[in-house]
Amino acid sequence: MRTSLYIFLLSLVSSTTCQMCPQGTCYAGSFSRKEHVTKGRYLLGSSYRNLSSVAGPQACHSACVGDCRCRAFQMSGKRCELLGEDKDSAPSRIAIDPAYDYYDIHQEILRASSHLADPSVCSNGCCLGQRCLNEGTCVEHCDSPKKKFSCKCRPPCSGKECEKCVYSSCAQITIYAEKY
User: Fold this and answer.
1) What keywords sit in the KW lines (predicted)?
2) Total structural domains within the chain
């Protein structure tokens, strides 16, 4: 009887729900080990944060849902890698490696019903810290859980977080350096 109860309780752990609700827009994600995993695959060049010794895929999933940049995650052993892309946005970078498991995250948007949150204004908390580099402006998005923010870059900078700056002359570099 105890063994049957133990097996039943373990079966409940394979599916969890996680919710991130910083401001007026919340994100809830459900995780099913069977449905959201692609075994023996990883996404090359999309990892931006590594977490070592996580308790398992559920803990990695929770970290991903709570991170504004995360679109998917992958695990190798106990190492969790948060990914800024997923297999839909970068299908050509999926690679084979039996040591890895790739996980899609499935999130939904929940609108907060609070007197503190104006429902007509997008507010998901993703721009609270300075996310954009080189004086870029962070813009929060509340339409898709896969794109929670973007950066409006000032010339001559570009990139997802305005990290790439290409100067046309040495004078431009000097002006930019004196200004900042």
Assistant:
1) Signal
2) 2
By C-alpha distance, which of 133, 134, 142, 110 is closest to 26? Answer: 110
CA distance 141 to 132: 14
Residues 53-81: pLDDT tens digits? 888 999 999 999 889 999 999 999 999 99
Domain hosting 102: range is: 25-108
In a domain, 91, yes or no: yes
Q: What is the pTM of this model?
A: 0.76
Q: Which of 46, 40, 18, 45 is nearest to 31 (CA)?
A: 18
First to last CA, the chain: 69
Query: What are the pLDDT digits (tens) for 82-102?
Result: 999 999 999 999 999 999 999
The pair of structure tokens assigned to 61 is 């999933």
